[in-house]
Amino acid sequence: MSENTQKILSNRLTYGMVGGGSGSFIGPVHKAAIAIDHSADLVCGSFSHNKEKNQVTGLDYQIISDRIYDDFEQMAEAEGNRSDGIDFVVIVVPNNLHYQCSKVFLEQGINVVCDKPLAFTPEEGYELMHLATKKGLEFMVTYTYTGYPMVNEAKNIIADGKIGDIRMVMAEYLQGWLADRVEDTDNKQAQWRVDPERAGLSCCVGDIGTHVENMIHYVTGLEIDRLSASLDSFVEGRKLDDNARINIEYKGGAKGIYWASQIAISEENGLKFRIYGTKGALEWEQEKPNVLIFKSKDLPTQVYTRGNGYLSTTAQQLTRIPAGHPEGYFEAFGNLYKNYCKKLSAKKIGEEIAENVFFTDVTDGTRGIKFVHDCVKSSNQDGVWVDGSFDYKKQ
Fold it and tell me: Which DSSP string corresponds to 36-92?
């Protein structure tokens, strides 16, 4: 065993989780994604405000009793003061607690991973951006779909200029699970997402529309200049939007149309994009994530598939098994954690990373919450065009 390998093993990463109690959807997904590459060990948590559920979850995860905390404030303080405290925290609570929870751990010098939306307001997002920078901490916001190999192949194709200058973007994220009042059943996922107190000022745009915004920015690098949005609440009595139609104008002249819906009957998790340039076009959809369609003005349509040697180095590095073996959501999530933990591990042993590692961060999260507010602002004024630009240096 090399000296460097021994050094890495002796400084193995540990993490804690806030939320993700028994019955949670996303908590176990995070845990499984981290485990794919054995990136870190779960050693503590505050999994639920229900004391019994909190204890049961902690014991199920084989956490020692004195590191199963009653609340996240207690957890942050205790872990921040331990000599063997966690390297990062995973925050998987409802939206209304994201900002408060993230801030408490940052203040204790602990790196953060948080689900989106990052916060309720752009101002809260900017505050977290600056706090993470001030503390020198790594802050990942989990826009999971950027972890797919073929999404990164699309990003590489565009960066190489193969589709030319982008003219038009068509993107959508369609679901049908909120087509009826499922919040009146025991569906806890629906209950908090349609509740303004816990979800914020938007359901559909805040929940899935932000994935559209992030995906297009990630793949193309396009920056929104202005937007016009119409948010709908089709289901009677629902306080927040369950459908959104958004027109986009980007800096540089490209145009875009986004559609996000949770009332599209029979749709499951239909995140898709079509990007048209002066020389070609790209198509990708999340429910068929291993395929990317490349259309050229002068050549036949090409179908790229995951795991093949003709793909870019980045796409190949994100691929785990040979071509023809489907990879999906867990692997994409794992790719985000793979890169995040690589960076944390290198910092922990005082080394620089030679290779380029990516993960969507607190800046992406802040841009996302501004996008939500801009959409609501426009819709509340009958779809008036509003400034959609993002100030990366705002204090």
Answer: HTT--EEEEEE--SSHHHHHHHHHHTT--GGGB-SSHHHHHHHHHH-TT--SEEEEE
Q: How far apart are CA 200 and CA 125, in angstroms?
A: 14
Number of H helices, E strands in the chain: 14, 14
- Using CA atoms, how far residue 120 sits from 155, 161, 235, 337, in Å, is 29, 37, 23, 25
Question: What is the tens place of the pLDDT at every residue in 274-310?
Answer: 999 999 999 999 999 999 999 999 899 999 999 999 9
| pLDDT for res 66 | 96
Beta bridge partners of 42: 15
User: Per the structure block, which two tokens stand in for 278?
Assistant: 């002066």
Q: Is the dihedral of CA 318, 320, 323, 328 positive or negative?
A: negative
pLDDT tens, position by position, 123-176 = 999 999 999 999 999 999 999 999 999 999 999 999 999 999 999 999 999 999
